[in-house]
Design goal:
By secondary structure, the protein is α/β, with parallel strands linked by helices. Helices cover 25% and strands 25% of the residues. The chain has a single domain, classed as Purple Acid Phosphatase, chain A, domain 2. The model has no long low-confidence stretch (mean pLDDT 97). The structure holds fe (ii) ion (FE2) (2 copies). The site of one fe (ii) ion has 6 residues, from loops.
């Protein structure tokens, strides 16, 4: 089976890239999973944006440090079971850290969302021990498992890949907004990429208007972040998985500009 994973969708430009890419390709995939933490103007996901992306063909959503950027995310989580936020957030937060969705071919796919702790500001429990707990919770409820590890440090993400190798079908990273060129199959069959990259404005600094960020590094009065316009990029990866062995057979990175 083929699963498309899409990196952090950033604002209107990112959503347009999703439409452009999926318009002709959505039927090729058994399941489409996207990180939606920046989908609404770069911060969080709102109800209209969520609905728009579902119409575009996205079947399930993961989030990250911007999970709570739009207040109506709580409502989205309450009424829909295809969206999760990092499972290892510290404290009493709304929502779930893992979900099970049915792919077009009938396979039950468990999706776990985790957040890193290295160079990240959120209070979070160990993503490693939380991964163990979430895999245990999903036992018997799904056929294969995917993990979105939303983290900054490449070392933490690569370590997670090897930690889960052979226990889940896929580990993909999100959050840095820069795609890494290390898509591969780990020794025990887990498909892996350190970061899918960002689906959003290509001429930008991680999605934000480049001049605002350049000014920020030059000093002076801070300016409000604005989503960049112009050319869009689509970033993701396709994982081909053998549903019997649960191993990944092939990983293909996607980077396209529209
Ligand atoms: Fe992001
Ligand atoms: Fe993030």
């Amino acid at each position: 089976m083929k699963i498309l994973t899409i990196g952090d969708i950033f604002g209107r430009v990112g959503r347009d890239a999703v439409f452009n890419e999926l318009e002709h390709s959505r039927d090729k995939y058994d399941l489409i999973v996207a990180n939606g933490e920046n989908a609404a103007h770069g911060r969080g996901i709102s109800k209209p944006v969520y609905e728009e992306l579902c119409r575009a063909g996205i079947d399930a959503f993961t989030l990250g440090n911007h999970s709570w950027g739009c207040p109506d995310v709580v409502k989205i989580m309450h009424y829909n079971d295809n969206i999760c936020r990092p499972a290892n957030f510290e404290g009493d937060v709304y929502g779930t850290g893992s979900i099970v969705v049915k792919a077009k071919n009938g396979i039950r796919v468990g999706i776990i969302n985790l957040i890193g702790r290295t160079y990240m500001t959120q209070q979070a429990k160990s993503p490693f021990y939380t991964a163990d707990e979430e895999i245990e919770k999903l036992s018997g409820k799904c056929d294969i498992i995917l993990v979105d590890f939303h983290a900054e440090a490449t070392s933490e993400k690569i370590a997670m890949g090897y930690y889960l190798d052979g226990r889940v079908s896929v580990v993909f990273g999100t959050h840095t907004h820069v795609q890494t060129a290390d898509a591969k199959i780990l020794p025990n069959g887990t498909g892996y990429i350190t970061d899918l990259g960002m689906t959003g404005p290509s001429i930008s600094v991680l999605g934000v208007d480049k001049n605002i960020i350049i000014d920020r590094f030059l000093g002076g009065m801070p300016k409000r972040f604005e989503v960049a316009g112009g050319v869009s990029q689509f970033c993701g990866a396709v994982f081909e998985i053998d549903e019997n062995t649960k191993k990944t057979l092939d990983v293909t990175r996607i980077y396209k500009e529209f």
